[in-house]
Amino acid sequence: MIATFEKINMKIESHPKDIEELTALKDYMTGVPNEIEKLQKDIKETLNIYAILDIFNYKFNDDEDYGRKWKVFGSPLDTVSRIDK
Q: 15: helix, coil or strand?
């Protein structure tokens, strides 16, 4: 799921070479909120899994694994913020 948001963000931050690419990028950015809405179910499921792990006091081997929870949580807002820029 994080990879999906990274792919979207890379496309949003790409630099169009001509007016056609700019128009295509604007059209793409217009559809991103719908794509994020489709991902909401997966985001909720992922966060539920992390909540279950928290209930059982599961300890992650490194901070990077635990940081993924917050990356999943914050990715929609991060992506929308990039569009606003």
A: coil
